[in-house]
Amino acid sequence: MYAAPDPDEIEVSVFGPSYGECILLHLGENNWLVVDSCLDPDSQEPVPLVYLRRIGVDPAQAVKQVIATHWHDDHIGGLGQVVEACTSAEFVCSDALKTEEFLTLVQAVHPHAMMRRSGVREFHTVLMSLAGRGARRLAPKFAIADRMLWQSGRCSVCALSPSDAAVLLARREIADRLTNQTGTKKGLVAPSPNHNSVVLWIAVGEVSILLGADLEETGNPGTGWSEVAHSRYHPSQKASLFKIPHHGSSSADNPQVWTDLLEPNPFAALTPWTLGGAFLPTRRDVDRICSRTDRAYATATNRQPGSRRRARGVERTISEIGATLRPVPYSRGHVRFRTQSLGVPTEWQVDLFEGAVPLRQVYLSR
Q1: What is the fold of 9-361?
Q2: Residue 182 and residue 191 in contact, taking contact as beta carbons nearer than 8 Å
Q3: Under DSSP, is residue 81 helix (H, G, I), strand (E, B) or coil?
């Protein structure tokens, strides 16, 4: 079931355990990219490290870049451990985070003072790991629209966002939130709507992939998916595989992306999101996406484990300490796409693991 791809195979693995997202890519010849991170529900280890070691790949040698598309908690779980393990990899993040305010906060905060899954705490771990590598690896590479992030032979990775306008807006929001922060116990809250998420265009020979991260439509000129669709960087070929942005939400939908940047009826995947009783994608989102492609998949369904009644004393203790408990997602969730990187492109082979389903089956009965 789990075996490393052949040297000439492209692999795109999408992980999403209902709260969290990670994409792991093999671009051929043992060149791997990690895009975002989430935690394995059982081991609480970063999913990309668990998977790479399971298929016999050494992260320290094989991973060429670790890319943080943005710093929302559900995309950054365990990212510090990933950077520590991938010692040969560059670290890439949004140009919007290249601010004195953000970097000062990250460097100043003691990690134990932060919430356990705080995005700022993860960035603190990342910067400490980079600093330990010496001056050559200290600085992250910053992603902005139309910047080539990595290139080797027939492979290229280019950022399609954030735009200049989005970076300006995000930096203002970070500065405002830091100014209004009363303490660092809970860390700095990431801005929303998401101006600074990094959308990636990946090409391997004749195969192209569009990774939508969590970029949203914002209503502001020069930002969001409208700016990506009108970008001066227009790939010469359309993408056959799409990681649908923002868990399929309508807030990230732009029909022009489907017509101008994607092949007809593309392969697609999304990671659902659930928290506090809310769930994405909605039924309407599923219908909208499936009207555009019948080859869409989700890493998990909306089913959750049944609740169990706790003893009265346990309930009283939980209430007294002010704790809030939520159910652990029932599956890790993994959609894997593979195709050949040489010769005439073939259709993607799709494998569904650990709770992943065709998108139309997301709303299964309990």
Answers
A1: Metallo-beta-lactamase; Chain A (3.60.15)
A2: no
A3: helix
Point out the residues of the chain with pLDDT beneath 50.
Answer: 111-117, 182-187, 305-308, 318, 321-330, 365-366
- Can you read off the two tokens belonging to residue 210? 């569009």
H-run or E-run covering 284: helix 283-290
* One-letter amino acid of 116: R
- Rounded to 5 degrees, φ, ψ at 158 are -125, 140
Q: What is the pLDDT of residues 210-257, one digit of tens each?
A: 999 999 987 777 899 989 988 776 677 899 999 999 999 999 999 999
Token pair in block for residue 340: 């050949």
Kind of pairing, strands 147-152 and 32-35? unpaired
CA triple 21-26-27, angle to 5 deg? 125
For the stretch 125-140, pLDDT in tens is 888 888 777 655 567 8
Burial code (b: 16+ CB inside 10 Å, e: under 16) for 317-332 equals eeeeeeeeeeeebbbb
3-state secondary structure of 268: strand
Q: What is the pLDDT of residues 184-218, one digit of tens each?
A: 444 455 556 677 899 999 999 999 999 999 999 87
| Chain CA centroid to CA 236, Å | 25
Burial of 201 (0-12, 13-18, 19+ CB in 10 A): buried
Neighbouring residues of 141: CB distance < 8 A, sequence distance ≥ 6: 65, 90, 91, 92, 149
